[in-house]
Amino acid sequence: MIYTLRHRTTYRYGRPVRFARCSLRLKPQDCEGQSVLASAVTIDPSPATAVTRHDYFGIDALAITLETPHTTFSVEALSTVRVERPEPPPPESGMAWERVRDAVVAGRDLGGRAPVHFLFPSGRVPLLPEVTDYARPSFAAGRSAYGAAHDLMLRIGRDFRFDARATNVYTPLSESFALRAGVCQDFAHVMIAALRGMGLPAAYVSGYLRTVPPPGRPRLRGADASHAWVAVWCGAGWLGLDPTNGVPVRDDHIVVARGRDYGDVAPVDGIVSGSGKQRLKVEVDVIPDTETQDLALVG
Amino acid sequence: MAAALADSVAGTDPAESPGARVARWAADYRPAPGRTDEFLGSDGQPRGAWPRLLDRLGALTEPEITTRFVAAERHIRDAGISFRIAGDQREHPWPLGCLPLVIEGAEWEALSAGIVQRAELMEAILADVYGDGRLVEEGLLPAAIVAGTPEFLHPLHRVMPPGGHYLKLYAADLGRGPDGRWQVLADRTQAPSGLGWALENRMVLARTFPDLVQDLHVERLPAFFQAFRDGLTLGAERIDPRICLLTSGPYSSTYVEQAALARYLGLMLVEGDDLVMQDGRLHVRTVSGLKRADALWRRIDADFLDPLELNPASRLGVPGILEALRNGSLVVTNMPGSGLVESAALAPYLDGIARRVLGEPLRLGHPPTWWCGDLEGLAYAQANLDSLTLRPAATPQRGAARDAILAGPALAAERERVVAALRDRPFDYVAQESAPLSTMPGWERGPDGLSLVPRPFVVRVFATRTPLGWQVMPGGFCRFAEREEVDPIELRLGIRSADVWVLSEKPIAAPLIVTQAAPRVRRVGGHLPARAADGLFWLGRYLERAEAVIRLVLAHLRSVGDAVGTDISGALDTPAALAVRALLYEWAAIGAADLPTARLAQEALSGRARPGSAWAHIGSARRNAAALRARLSGEVWRVLADLSESLALDTERALTESQLTGRAERALSQLAALSGLTHENMSRAEGWHFVELGRRIERAINTCTFALAFANDEATPGCLGVMLSLCDSQISYGRRYLQGAALDPVRDMVLLDPYNPRSIAFQAEAITRHLADLPALAADGIPEPHHRLATRILADLHSGEAADFDAVRLTALESDLERLADGIAARYFPTGPNALRPEKLMGLA
Question: For chain A, what is the largest distance between any 2 Cα atoms, rounded to a whole number of angstroms?
Fold first, then answer.
C-alpha cells in the first residue's frame, strides 16, 4: 500500500516570539516493511538555521532556530510511503519471554538499535509496581514473549476506555493507569511500562493509522490524527502491537519514529521565548493510493 | 599504651598532667569489636599519626581546648558558613567537628596512587562507552549496566569533550573495610560537592590550632585549588577564558559552598537563566550585554543541563547548550554524561577493565559487590541475602547514595519485597556485603570533661586533572555521625564534618590559605550578570520601601502622641492622620484603615499576612540578598537578619504605642546602618550602582506619593508637618523658616531642593549619575531611552518652581519615575522583555 501523508502543525502565540529553537521529527522512517518514497517539510517563518541530526536511536530530527519575530509558527510535512509488512506471526509463537529477557540482559550490543535501551524506565515511563502486577497474569511461565505481549495488548484494549478528555499530553502514567482511560499515547505508555516491568524491551512508535471514511462519504480534510503504538522485542526482532485498537501492526500503520517514549519521538518539540498564550492546531491526512483522486484536493 | 603516651609530654596543668589526660582519653576510648578504627588498631595499640596529634592536644588544658572550640563556632556563625538539608529552606550553621582526621604522609601516598588509578580508569571507561564501545563488545562491561543508568546520555555519544577529557574532578568516598584497608564506598564524577566545605574546614581549623598545623607539618591545599582552577579551562578556545560556576540557585543545599568557591576561585556564579546560546556559543547575560562564556563548572546534574535535548522539565539549564559541546566552543567540568561511572553495578567489573585498559590490577577496591543481572551474581545474592545489602544498580544521582532497600538479616516481610524485586527485574539491583563503617575519634563534651568516642565516618578525597596528570588534594572532606543509625555519607542533622590532615615528614613552607600564583591586578570583578543586577536593584527598592512604611507608622503614632492632652478623638480624624491611614491601607500594609492606633502600627510593621508590611518588604530584601551571597559582605547579611528580628513582633501579644515606637525607631537605625555599609564598604562597581539606583528610584516614587497625599493644594499645616517628617526634613525646615509649615517652602524642600538628600531632585541627580557610569550597549554616542527619560525628569525638577507642582504635575512625575524604573529593568535585567524566559512548546503536536 502506498500512502500520501500530510501533517500540518500550527502554533499561534499571544505575543510575538523573537526566538525559537525546535526539533522536528516528522519524516517517516525507512524500516522493515516500509520505505519512504518522498518527504518534504515546509516551515513558516523560514528558519535561520536548520540542521538534520541523526540521533542515537536512528531518528532523524531537524533542529531549527527561528529568529524572525512571529506570532504564527507552522510546519507542514508531506510524505509518500510504501508499506508492505509481512503478516504478523501467530500469537503463541516464538521464544519464551524469560529467555528473551535473559538474552537481552546478557547482550553485548549497546548500539542505538539494541533492545537493551528499551528495557529501563524513561522520562515518561516510570516502572510502577501496580502496572507490573497488572501485567503479570499474561506472563505464565514459559509462554512465548509475543504471546504474552499480544494477550496484554488485548487486555489493555478491553480494560481501558478511549477518552480524549480524560487525559492530556502531560498526564502522568500513574494517573492514566488509575483512570483506566486516555488516548493512544496513554495506552502505549501503559503497555510499555507493563512490558518493561516484566523485563521485556518495549518501544514507543509514533506514526499514522489509515482510517476508512464511512461508505459513500468523501474523506474529510485534516480529520485524521497522528497515532502511537508499541513495538515489543521478541528475541529476534521487533513486533508492533496497537493496544488502542487491540490489533497487531500491519499495513494500516505507518511508522514515523521509534523511541523509548513520546519524549524521544515528539513530532514538534521546542522552546520559544515569551509566547504569551499558545494555541495549537494539528491537521493530519492519511490518504491511501486507492483514493488518489483526493490527492489533488490535499496536495 | 597509656604509658607510651604519658611519657612524651611535660605537665602544664597542676590538676592533671598532660600525659595523664591523654592516657585517660585513650583508656576510655572503646571502638566496637570487629570494626576498623583509625586511632586504635586491632591489637588495641594507637596507630599512625594519632599519638602525635593527641600528645599535642594533651598539652592544652581542657578549658583551653573548649575555649578554642567556642571561638571556632563563633567564627562559623559570623562568617555565615551554613548548609541546608535537601528539601528544607532553613539554613543550619556548619557542623564542624574540632578533631581532624589525621593520616600519615606515607599511607597517604599509597592511597593517592589508588585514587589516581581509579580516576584514570573512570576516564577510560567514559571515553570507551561514549566512543568505540569496545568494553561492551568484549564482554568486560555488560551493556545492560550502561543502558540502565540514566546518566548514559545518548545525545553525547561520539561527542569528544573539548580538550579530550571527560573528568576534570574526580572524588571518591572512602572508608576502611574489615581488613583495615581503605576502600571506595562511592565514586563521584557527576558534580562532586565538598571542595568548598573542605576549604572552609581548613580555614576554621587553621585558625583554631595554628600551632598544630605548623608543628605537625600539615600539607597545604592552595596548590590543589590552583591546579583545579587552571584545569577548568583546559581545552578552551580563547586565551583569557571566562569561567562560570553554574549553580541550581540559592535553595540548593550546597549553595553557600558554591558561592564560597566562586569567590575563592574567582569564577562568575551563574544560574541557568543567566546563560543563553547564541550563534552556537554560550553567553552570559550581563549588564554590558551578552558576554561569551568559555568554561563552565556545573554543579547541577547533567540531565538538567539542556531542557531541549535532555530533561524537558528542567528549569535550571540552558536550552541548546549541548550544541556548544558538539562544536567544541565550551568546556564543561565534568563533561555531561560522566555521572555514568557512579553506577554501583560497575564495581564487580572494574578489576577486569583495569587489567585490560591499564594493564594492571585495581589498586583501590570496594566492598564485595554482585550485579544481579549476572546469573551467577543473582544466584549468590539469593543464597546469601542475610549478609548482603541490596541496592539499586544505577545509583540514584540525587538524594541518598546508599539507598539500601534491605540491609542485614532480613525481616520476613522485607524478605518478600526483596524476593519480588529480584524475580521481576534482578538487573536493577546490586548486592553488597554488609559491613559497618570504620570509626575515628571525635570529642564528646560530658559532665566530667572531654572524652574521645569512636564515630562512624566517610572521607571524600578529590583529584583534579592537570596537563601533567592527576593531582590529589592532600586533605579531604570528612563526615562523621554522632549517632550510630545516621549515615554520614549525606549531610543532615546528626552529621559533623572534620578537616583532614595529611602529615608530611618535613616542615611545609607553602602558605596556608592564599593561592601561590601572583594574581593579575584588577579593580573591578568583571561584568555583572543581569540577574545579579536585578537582585541588587530590588534589594535597594525593598529596603527603601520598608523605610517608607516605617516612617508612615511613626507619623501615625506621632499624630496620636502630639494630640495627647488636647483632644485625642479629634486628632484621630485630622486630615493628616486620615491620610496616613489611607496610604498604609493603599500600600497593603494594613487590612483595614480604621484599626485602633496600636494595632494598626503593629500590623503595618510586622503583619505576616500583609504583603505591604515592613516585615514583608524586609523578607523580600532578604530573599534577594540570599541569591547575592557571593557579592554581599557578611555584615550586610547579619544586619538584615537583625532587622527582620526587630520587625518580627508576636501578633498574639499586643505592644503599647511607646513600645512600637521603640521598635520602629530601632528598625530605622538598622536601615541606616545598612545604607552606611553599602556606602562605606561596597566597591563603586556596577553592583553598587544598581543597589543605589533601586534605592533612589524607590525613594523618588515614594516622595511623589507622599507629596500627593500631604503636600497637595489643600494640605493643612498638620499634613505639611507629616510631609516633613516622612522626608526626615523637620530640622532643616525649622532652621530655615521661623514660621510653621507653609506649602511652597515645604514643597520646594522635598521636591526641588538639590541640597536636601531626601528631595526628588536629589534622587534624580543621583540616578542620572549612576546611569552615566553604567556600560552603554552601542558605541554610537546616542543616549539610550532610559537615559533620556532620566535627563528629562531632572531637567523638569531643576527648572520647576514649587508652585507648579500641583496634583497633575506630581502625578505626571510619578508616572515618569515608574516608567524610568521599567526602562531600567527592560534594559538591564533578565526579566525584561528583551530577555524573556524560554517556554516549552505545548501540546501533542
Answer: 60
Contact A246, B294 (CB under 8 A): no
pLDDT at A114: 94
Q: Which of B137, B148, B154 lies at the smallest CB-CB distance from A56?
A: B154
Ramachandran quadrant class, B513 (left: phi over 0; alpha: psi -120 to 50; beta: rest) = alpha
The residue in chain B having the minimum alpha-carbon distance to the alpha carbon of residue A271 is B840
Residues of B in contact with A107 (CB under 8 A): 143-144
Q: Cell 573591578 maps to which residue? A: B524
C-alpha span between B648 and B605 (Å, rounded): 8
Torsion, Cα of B39, B44, B46, B47 (10° steps):
-70
Per the DSSP assignment, residues forming a β-bridge with A242 are: A247
Cα separation of A51 and A30, whole Å?
A: 20
Identify whether the C-beta of residue A13 lies closer than 8 Å to the C-beta of residue A232.
Answer: no
- Identify whether the C-beta of residue B39 lies closer than 8 Å to the C-beta of residue B452: yes
d(CA B502, CA B320): 44
Whether B143 and chain A come into contact, CB under 8 Å, resolves to yes
How many residues in total does chain A contain? 299
φ, ψ of residue B203 to 5 degrees: the values are: -60, -40
For residue B419, what are the contacts with CB-CB under 8 A and spacing of at least 6? none
- Which positions ≥6 away from A135 have C-beta within 8 Å? A152, A194, A195, A197, A198
DSSP state of B451: E
| Tens-place pLDDT, residues B174-231 | 999 988 999 999 999 999 999 999 998 998 898 889 889 989 999 999 999 999 999 9
Closest partner CB to A119 (pick from B129, B147, B277): B147
CA of residue B616 relative to chain centroid, distance: 23
Q: What is the pLDDT of residues B369-395, one digit of tens each?
A: 999 999 999 999 989 888 888 888 886
pTM, full prediction = 0.85
Residues of chain B numbered 406-435 and touching chain A (CB < 8 Å): 424-425, 427
Unique residue bearing C-alpha cell 577510560: B124
ipTM score assigned to the predicted complex = 0.92
8 A C-beta contact, residue B804 and residue B707:
no
Q: Would the CB atoms of A104 and B157 count as touching at under 8 Å?
A: no
Task: Kindly determine whether residue A108 and residue B143, on different chains, have CB atoms separated by under 8 Å.
Answer: yes
If we measure between CA atoms, which residue out of B770, B762, B608 comes closest to residue B686?
B770
Contact across the interface for A120 and B147, Cβ inside 8 Å: yes
Segments of chain B scoring below 50 in pLDDT: 1-13, 397-403, 514-517, 563-570, 832-835
- Cα–Cα distance for residue pair B814/A215, rounded to 1 Å: 71
Q: Is B531 exposed, middle or buried (0-12, 13-18, 19+ CB in 10 A)?
A: buried
In the block, which residue shows the cell 492530556?
A168
Q: Does residue A115 belong to the interface with chain B, where contact is any CB pair within 8 Å?
A: no
